């Protein structure tokens, strides 16, 4: 969609250029008017500036938990998902796991009730001496095996998807857990932000929920692969955003990494999910996914710079030997 829009914009600019060329003789007469038309064209081509960025207002119910009072059913299940892995996992939960669990539970409950009524001491004074029934033993072995295989296929697929390595040109963001706040480092952009929870009044003033709202969000571009790394400076924390299907431990001295692609713009809230000390419940996470131009403006507003095309290309070249090294290491027989 973004590409289509960019093409449309390019087409419009080309048309403008053609009109201006044809109209060149009249330009002297209409110079003031032409300048007025040309000015916004130049502005559109210039790199986004810091002033182009404004923090996004969250959408009620999106990227945040639902209270029982608002919607009892929704408050008890997963949040709506905004990543492909999340949608896959949620569909697996809704259409496979929950039905299987429900049917098995009801079946076992039915059996228990049946046995309790039919084979109790009063209604069945002479117990049967049956010890084997080959047919039923084959059935109760084969059926659970089939159920487990049916669950295993999408389950292992999901696991593999979650381990997918980000591409070389993915944007790197390092989330660092501190007692008790988060720091977000953008090594490709020379940006670092410290993110503290807003107090109750500040959250209300910004139209957000207390214990979810933060002063500086983790701003990221939407629709592109992010290489999200987590680590910690003091104790173990965990970076978790339920609506993005993302939870990863932040461990001192370790760098965990997972790919994240957010599918639509929005503000997505999460919380530290590893008991990390007294203020564990007061270090929320707010991820703001914005279109690339907005992200560039945000980087400018933080005093950072976008990596040049050469730097991106270099990252691609750098990545290749590393991949080969991994492939070689994999190929070596285990000692
Ligand atoms: Cu923590």
Give an overview of the whole structure.
By secondary structure, the protein is of the alpha+beta class. Among the domains are: 2-41; 171-309, Sandwich (Immunoglobulin-like), CATH 2.60.40. Helix content is 43%, strand content 18%. The protein contains eight helices and ten strands. The protein has helices at residues 2-22, 31-45, 72-75, 84-118, 134-162, 200-205, 292-301, 309-331; strands at 171-178, 181-186, 191-195, 218-221, 226-232, 237-241, 246-250, 256-260, 266-272, 284-290. Strands 3-2-1-5-8 form a five-stranded mixed β-sheet, with no helix packed on it. A five-stranded mixed β-sheet has the order 4-10-9-6-7. The relative contact order is 0.13. Residues 1-44 and 324-329 have low confidence and may be disordered. Residues 177, 237, 272, 274, 276, 280, 283 line the site of copper (II) ion (CU).
């Amino acid at each position: 969609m973004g590409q289509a829009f960019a093409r449309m914009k390019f087409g419009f600019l080309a048309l403008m250029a053609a009109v201006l060329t044809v109209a060149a003789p009249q330009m002297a007469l209409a110079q003031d008017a032409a300048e007025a038309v040309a000015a916004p064209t130049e502005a559109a081509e210039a790199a986004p500036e810091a002033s182009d960025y404004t923090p996004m207002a969250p959408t009620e119910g999106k990227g945040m938990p639902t209270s029982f009072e608002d919607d009892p059913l929704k408050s008890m299940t997963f949040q709506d998902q905004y990543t492909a892995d999340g949608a896959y996992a949620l569909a697996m939960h809704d259409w496979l796991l929950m039905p299987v669990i429900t049917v098995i539970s009801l079946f076992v409950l039915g059996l228990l009730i049946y046995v309790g009524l039919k084979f109790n001491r009063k209604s069945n004074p002479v117990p049967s001496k049956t010890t084997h029934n080959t047919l039923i033993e084959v059935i109760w072995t084969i059926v659970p095996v089939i159920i487990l295989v049916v669950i295993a296929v999408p389950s292992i697929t999901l696991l593999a998807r979650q381990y997918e390595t980000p591409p070389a040109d993915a944007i790197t963001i390092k989330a660092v857990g501190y007692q008790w706040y988060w720091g977000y480092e953008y090594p490709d952009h020379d940006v670092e932000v410290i993110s503290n929870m807003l107090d109750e009044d500040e959250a209300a003033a910004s139209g957000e929920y207390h214990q979810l709202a933060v002063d500086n969000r983790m701003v990221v571009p939407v629709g592109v692969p992010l290489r999200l790394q987590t680590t910690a400076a003091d104790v173990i924390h965990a970076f978790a955003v339920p609506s993005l299907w993302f939870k990863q431990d932040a461990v001192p001295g370790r760098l965990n990494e997972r790919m994240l692609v957010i599918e639509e713009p929005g503000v997505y809230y999460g919380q530290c999910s590893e008991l990390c000390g007294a203020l564990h419940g007061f270090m929320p996470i707010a991820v703001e996914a914005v279109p690339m131009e907005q992200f560039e403006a945000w980087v400018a507003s933080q005093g950072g710079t976008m990596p040049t095309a050469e730097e991106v290309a270099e990252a691609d070249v750098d990545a290749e030997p590393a991949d080969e090294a991994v492939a070689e290491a994999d190929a070596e027989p285990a000692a």
